[in-house]
Amino acid sequence: MTTAKVNLLDYDRKGLRDLFAQLGEKPYRADQVMKWIYHRHVTDFAQMTDVGKALREKLAAASEIVPPKTLFEKQAADGTYKWLLGMDGSNAIESVFIPETSRGTLCVSSQVGCGLNCQFCSTATQGFNRNLSAAEIIGQVWVAAKHLGNVPHHQRKLTNVVMMGMGEPLLNFDNVVAAMSVMRDDLGFGLANKRVTLSTAGLVPMIDKLSESSDVSLAVSLHAPNDELRTELVPLNKKYPIKELLDACGRYAARRPRTTITFEYTMLKGVNDQPEHARQLVKLMRKVPSKVNLIPFNPFHGTRFERSEESVIRAFQKILLDANVLTMVRRTRGDDIDAACGQLKGQVTDRTRRQAEFRRKLEQGVADAA
Ligand code: SF4
């Protein structure tokens, strides 16, 4: 009987040291191998020249290093880069790298599809298949880092990671926490805590759990300033309404001096972009140390929403700024390759029948309009 090999990308430093201990090896050997994987992008044990031949053979017999397979890659006119990464025979996810003058940000996915059904989100129309493994999450960073020629601590081209791609990261807690640990480990990608951001739709108990186990930056997909509207846009709000969510954010911030929570707010024309919405948002933002990211909606095929006018977004921002709420408008990047915020799709074998329902509604809308 043959035993399946373990993928070393599935382990953070502690996990890898434990694995090496089981093989009768010292912890520093695990550290050496981590450096080969994440600093030099080596996946072949034979190339790990400072690791003894006997250990290399032992590792090759019991383990492998398998990043996700690049099925397709494309660069936008503004330099944004998108990968379609195959996760198994029938599912693929997208990750996006956004280069800016002083930093390079990779947007990483945590699930194949998403089950939370936010109404303005392209991923949501595809349904949900499964959680990604830790290897599949950190593998997205590995693929981008290799492509960019990133060398932690020296040639740092990848400076920030945001868990804002497909999926709700807090519903895949253990794998996401393990992958974020490698992102911040000096033997991994060596990013500072504040440069790794987890974005959640608002799973209150899991925000508290994250608070106990990780020091990453927290972002919350808010998108509406009152419960009635938010429940319509982000159905999870029915379970965890805004007050409970803000209380959890307050607890998260209280454990980390000088931390601010980022609140993402997608600007939907005539839906959540009116001055009274901005004034309601100001009141909410007084409850926690916060900043607001206004995201011009990026339309996708079949959506009923439209992007707010630029002048409306600026007027909304001014109300917040005048009330001393730090507020940025996110520049749309990579929309010519469908890599902009909320546009990631991948290939999802839907297990929720949501794709069929979305198609039915779409066809019905077309028939009604005919
Ligand atoms: S916005 Fe995020 S949590 Fe909501 S459906 Fe899309 S991927 Fe899921």
From TrEMBL:
Gene3D superfamilies: 1.10.150.530, Aldolase class I. Its main location: cytoplasm. GO terms for molecular function: methyltransferase activity. It is found in: Cytoplasm. Its cofactor is [4Fe-4S] cluster. [4Fe-4S] cluster binds at residues 114, 118, 121. It comes from the Bacteria. It holds the Pfam family Radical_SAM. Its EC number is 2.1.1.192. InterPro entries: Aldolase_TIM (IPR013785), Methyltransferase_A (IPR040072), RlmN_N (IPR048641), RNA_MTrfase_RlmN (IPR027492), rRNA_lsu_MTrfase_RlmN/Cfr (IPR004383), rSAM (IPR007197), rSAM_sf (IPR058240). Keywords: 4Fe-4S, Cytoplasm, Disulfide bond, Iron, Iron-sulfur, Metal-binding, Methyltransferase, rRNA processing, S-adenosyl-L-methionine, Transferase, tRNA processing. It catalyses: adenosine(2503) in 23S rRNA + 2 reduced [2Fe-2S]-[ferredoxin] + 2 S-adenosyl-L-methionine = 2-methyladenosine(2503) in 23S rRNA + 5'-deoxyadenosine + L-methionine + 2 oxidized [2Fe-2S]-[ferredoxin] + S-adenosyl-L-homocysteine; adenosine(37) in tRNA + 2 reduced [2Fe-2S]-[ferredoxin] + 2 S-adenosyl-L-methionine = 2-methyladenosine(37) in tRNA + 5'-deoxyadenosine + L-methionine + 2 oxidized [2Fe-2S]-[ferredoxin] + S-adenosyl-L-homocysteine. It is an enzyme of class 2 (transferase). The active site is at residues 94, 341. One of its GO terms (biological process) is methylation. Binds 1 [4Fe-4S] cluster. The cluster is coordinated with 3 cysteines and an exchangeable S-adenosyl-L-methionine. Residues 100-336 form the Radical SAM core domain. S-adenosyl-L-methionine binds at residues 167-168, 199, 221-223, 298. Specifically methylates position 2 of adenine 2503 in 23S rRNA and position 2 of adenine 37 in tRNAs. m2A2503 modification seems to play a crucial role in the proofreading step occurring at the peptidyl transferase center and thus would serve to optimize ribosomal fidelity. Reaction proceeds by a ping-pong mechanism involving intermediate methylation of a conserved cysteine residue. Belongs to the radical SAM superfamily. RlmN family. This is Dual-specificity RNA methyltransferase RlmN. It comes from Dokdonella ginsengisoli.
